[in-house]
Design brief:
Blueprint lengths: L4 H21 L7 H16 L7 E5 L7 H7 L4 E5 L3 H13 L4 E4 L3 H4 L8 E7 L4 H8 L3 E11 L4 H12 L2 E10 L5 E9 L11 H6 L3
Helix pairs in contact: 1-4, 2-3, 6-7
Length: 217
Protein backbone atom coordinates (compact mmCIF):
# COMPACT_ATOMS: atom_id res chain seq x y z
CA UNK A 1 0.00 0.00 0.00
CA UNK A 2 1.52 3.32 -1.09
CA UNK A 3 0.29 6.48 0.63
CA UNK A 4 0.65 9.99 -0.77
CA UNK A 5 2.44 12.74 1.26
CA UNK A 6 -0.87 14.41 2.17
CA UNK A 7 -2.27 11.20 3.64
CA UNK A 8 0.98 10.51 5.51
CA UNK A 9 1.05 14.05 6.90
CA UNK A 10 -2.49 13.77 8.22
CA UNK A 11 -1.73 10.38 9.76
CA UNK A 12 1.31 11.77 11.54
CA UNK A 13 -0.70 14.64 13.00
CA UNK A 14 -3.54 12.29 13.91
CA UNK A 15 -1.10 10.02 15.76
CA UNK A 16 0.19 13.04 17.69
CA UNK A 17 -3.34 14.04 18.69
CA UNK A 18 -4.17 10.49 19.81
CA UNK A 19 -1.04 10.47 21.97
CA UNK A 20 -1.78 13.92 23.45
CA UNK A 21 -5.38 13.14 24.31
CA UNK A 22 -4.68 9.63 25.49
CA UNK A 23 -2.66 11.12 28.33
CA UNK A 24 -5.81 12.97 29.46
CA UNK A 25 -8.82 10.75 28.79
CA UNK A 26 -7.51 7.26 27.90
CA UNK A 27 -9.06 7.03 24.44
CA UNK A 28 -7.14 3.87 23.47
CA UNK A 29 -5.41 1.05 25.34
CA UNK A 30 -2.83 0.70 22.56
CA UNK A 31 -0.10 3.29 23.18
CA UNK A 32 3.26 1.94 21.95
CA UNK A 33 4.13 3.67 18.63
CA UNK A 34 4.78 0.42 16.74
CA UNK A 35 1.54 -1.11 18.01
CA UNK A 36 -0.40 2.05 17.14
CA UNK A 37 1.03 1.92 13.62
CA UNK A 38 0.15 -1.75 13.06
CA UNK A 39 -2.92 -2.39 15.19
CA UNK A 40 -4.65 0.92 14.56
CA UNK A 41 -3.41 2.58 11.38
CA UNK A 42 -2.51 -0.40 9.19
CA UNK A 43 -5.51 -2.39 10.40
CA UNK A 44 -7.86 0.45 9.47
CA UNK A 45 -6.18 1.14 6.13
CA UNK A 46 -6.97 -2.48 5.22
CA UNK A 47 -10.64 -1.63 5.69
CA UNK A 48 -10.29 1.67 3.82
CA UNK A 49 -9.01 -0.24 0.77
CA UNK A 50 -12.17 -2.34 0.50
CA UNK A 51 -14.22 -1.55 -2.62
CA UNK A 52 -17.47 -1.30 -0.62
CA UNK A 53 -16.21 1.80 1.23
CA UNK A 54 -17.91 4.57 -0.72
CA UNK A 55 -20.85 6.95 -0.54
CA UNK A 56 -22.43 7.69 2.82
CA UNK A 57 -20.56 5.83 5.58
CA UNK A 58 -21.18 5.54 9.33
CA UNK A 59 -18.66 4.28 11.88
CA UNK A 60 -20.39 2.95 15.00
CA UNK A 61 -18.58 3.27 18.34
CA UNK A 62 -15.81 5.40 16.83
CA UNK A 63 -13.85 5.84 20.06
CA UNK A 64 -10.53 7.41 19.08
CA UNK A 65 -11.60 7.45 15.43
CA UNK A 66 -10.44 4.04 14.26
CA UNK A 67 -11.51 3.23 11.60
CA UNK A 68 -13.72 6.24 10.76
CA UNK A 69 -11.01 8.92 10.66
CA UNK A 70 -8.71 6.67 8.62
CA UNK A 71 -11.50 5.98 6.12
CA UNK A 72 -11.96 9.71 5.57
CA UNK A 73 -8.21 10.38 5.30
CA UNK A 74 -7.80 7.64 2.70
CA UNK A 75 -11.03 8.26 0.81
CA UNK A 76 -11.83 11.98 1.23
CA UNK A 77 -14.79 11.76 -1.16
CA UNK A 78 -16.88 9.63 1.22
CA UNK A 79 -19.45 11.28 3.49
CA UNK A 80 -18.49 10.05 6.96
CA UNK A 81 -20.50 10.06 10.19
CA UNK A 82 -18.78 9.08 13.43
CA UNK A 83 -21.17 7.70 16.06
CA UNK A 84 -19.83 7.80 19.62
CA UNK A 85 -21.85 8.22 22.83
CA UNK A 86 -18.90 9.21 25.07
CA UNK A 87 -18.84 13.03 25.21
CA UNK A 88 -15.10 13.33 25.81
CA UNK A 89 -14.41 11.14 22.81
CA UNK A 90 -16.84 13.08 20.61
CA UNK A 91 -14.97 16.25 21.59
CA UNK A 92 -11.74 14.59 20.51
CA UNK A 93 -13.22 13.43 17.21
CA UNK A 94 -14.51 16.93 16.43
CA UNK A 95 -11.06 18.37 17.20
CA UNK A 96 -9.39 15.86 14.88
CA UNK A 97 -11.76 16.87 12.09
CA UNK A 98 -10.78 20.53 12.49
CA UNK A 99 -7.06 19.88 12.96
CA UNK A 100 -6.85 17.66 9.89
CA UNK A 101 -9.26 19.75 7.81
CA UNK A 102 -11.61 16.81 7.33
CA UNK A 103 -15.29 17.24 6.57
CA UNK A 104 -17.08 14.86 8.92
CA UNK A 105 -20.13 14.61 11.16
CA UNK A 106 -19.82 13.52 14.80
CA UNK A 107 -22.96 12.26 16.54
CA UNK A 108 -22.91 11.86 20.32
CA UNK A 109 -25.67 9.26 20.35
CA UNK A 110 -26.13 5.52 20.66
CA UNK A 111 -26.47 3.49 17.47
CA UNK A 112 -29.62 1.72 18.67
CA UNK A 113 -31.31 5.10 19.21
CA UNK A 114 -30.27 6.31 15.76
CA UNK A 115 -31.68 3.08 14.32
CA UNK A 116 -35.12 4.26 15.45
CA UNK A 117 -34.66 7.80 14.10
CA UNK A 118 -34.55 9.45 10.68
CA UNK A 119 -31.04 7.98 10.30
CA UNK A 120 -32.57 4.50 9.96
CA UNK A 121 -31.56 2.80 6.69
CA UNK A 122 -29.82 5.97 5.50
CA UNK A 123 -26.21 4.78 5.07
CA UNK A 124 -24.56 2.99 2.16
CA UNK A 125 -22.01 1.41 4.50
CA UNK A 126 -21.78 0.96 8.27
CA UNK A 127 -18.53 -0.09 9.93
CA UNK A 128 -17.61 -0.99 13.50
CA UNK A 129 -14.43 -2.10 15.28
CA UNK A 130 -13.98 -3.48 18.80
CA UNK A 131 -17.53 -2.60 19.87
CA UNK A 132 -19.42 -5.82 20.68
CA UNK A 133 -19.85 -9.47 19.74
CA UNK A 134 -21.22 -9.86 16.23
CA UNK A 135 -24.81 -10.90 17.12
CA UNK A 136 -25.35 -7.73 19.20
CA UNK A 137 -23.25 -5.58 16.88
CA UNK A 138 -25.43 -6.59 13.94
CA UNK A 139 -28.51 -5.28 15.73
CA UNK A 140 -26.78 -1.97 16.47
CA UNK A 141 -25.58 -1.51 12.90
CA UNK A 142 -27.77 -3.23 10.30
CA UNK A 143 -30.86 -1.05 10.95
CA UNK A 144 -28.75 1.93 9.83
CA UNK A 145 -27.81 0.35 6.47
CA UNK A 146 -29.80 0.99 3.29
CA UNK A 147 -31.22 -2.01 1.48
CA UNK A 148 -28.48 -3.01 -0.95
CA UNK A 149 -25.81 -1.42 1.25
CA UNK A 150 -23.12 -3.06 3.36
CA UNK A 151 -22.26 -3.72 7.00
CA UNK A 152 -18.48 -4.24 7.35
CA UNK A 153 -17.54 -5.20 10.92
CA UNK A 154 -13.84 -5.61 11.71
CA UNK A 155 -13.23 -8.67 13.85
CA UNK A 156 -10.54 -11.04 15.03
CA UNK A 157 -9.96 -14.56 13.68
CA UNK A 158 -12.85 -16.24 15.56
CA UNK A 159 -15.02 -17.46 12.69
CA UNK A 160 -17.56 -18.97 15.10
CA UNK A 161 -18.87 -15.42 15.57
CA UNK A 162 -20.35 -15.68 12.09
CA UNK A 163 -22.10 -18.93 12.96
CA UNK A 164 -23.49 -17.37 16.13
CA UNK A 165 -24.53 -14.19 14.29
CA UNK A 166 -25.95 -15.78 11.12
CA UNK A 167 -29.50 -15.91 12.49
CA UNK A 168 -29.33 -12.32 13.79
CA UNK A 169 -27.98 -11.04 10.48
CA UNK A 170 -30.74 -12.79 8.53
CA UNK A 171 -33.49 -11.58 10.88
CA UNK A 172 -32.22 -8.00 10.47
CA UNK A 173 -32.26 -8.22 6.67
CA UNK A 174 -28.61 -9.05 6.03
CA UNK A 175 -26.66 -11.78 4.28
CA UNK A 176 -23.02 -12.79 4.88
CA UNK A 177 -21.32 -12.53 1.49
CA UNK A 178 -17.68 -13.03 2.37
CA UNK A 179 -15.09 -13.16 5.18
CA UNK A 180 -11.82 -11.48 4.19
CA UNK A 181 -8.78 -12.51 6.22
CA UNK A 182 -5.61 -10.51 6.89
CA UNK A 183 -2.45 -10.91 8.96
CA UNK A 184 -0.75 -7.88 10.52
CA UNK A 185 3.07 -7.58 10.79
CA UNK A 186 2.94 -8.89 14.38
CA UNK A 187 1.21 -12.05 13.03
CA UNK A 188 -2.13 -11.19 14.64
CA UNK A 189 -5.07 -12.17 12.46
CA UNK A 190 -7.91 -9.92 11.40
CA UNK A 191 -11.12 -10.43 9.45
CA UNK A 192 -13.51 -8.11 7.67
CA UNK A 193 -17.03 -9.47 7.39
CA UNK A 194 -18.88 -8.41 4.25
CA UNK A 195 -22.59 -8.38 5.06
CA UNK A 196 -24.99 -7.05 2.45
CA UNK A 197 -28.40 -5.68 3.39
CA UNK A 198 -30.79 -7.67 1.21
CA UNK A 199 -34.07 -6.63 2.84
CA UNK A 200 -35.41 -3.88 5.07
CA UNK A 201 -34.94 -4.43 8.81
CA UNK A 202 -38.23 -5.26 10.60
CA UNK A 203 -39.62 -2.24 12.46
CA UNK A 204 -39.24 -3.85 15.90
CA UNK A 205 -35.44 -3.67 15.59
CA UNK A 206 -33.19 -2.39 17.01
CA UNK A 207 -34.35 -3.05 20.54
CA UNK A 208 -33.12 -1.17 23.59
CA UNK A 209 -29.51 -1.83 24.61
CA UNK A 210 -30.50 -3.74 27.76
CA UNK A 211 -32.60 -6.15 25.69
CA UNK A 212 -29.87 -6.60 23.07
CA UNK A 213 -27.31 -7.44 25.76
CA UNK A 214 -29.63 -9.67 27.78
CA UNK A 215 -30.99 -11.67 24.86
CA UNK A 216 -29.01 -11.35 21.61
CA UNK A 217 -30.83 -12.50 18.50
Amino acid sequence: MKLCPEVLGRCERYAELVDEWNRKINITAITEPEEVEDKHFLDCFLLACQPEIKGKVADVGSGAGFPGIILKIYKPDIEITLIESNKKKTAFLSLVGKELDLSLQVLGERAEDLGRSSARESFDVVTARAVAALPALSEYCLPLVKTGGFFLPMKGPKETEGTEAKKAIEVLGGEIKEIRKYTLPDDSERTIWVVQKSASTPERYPRKMAQIKKKPL
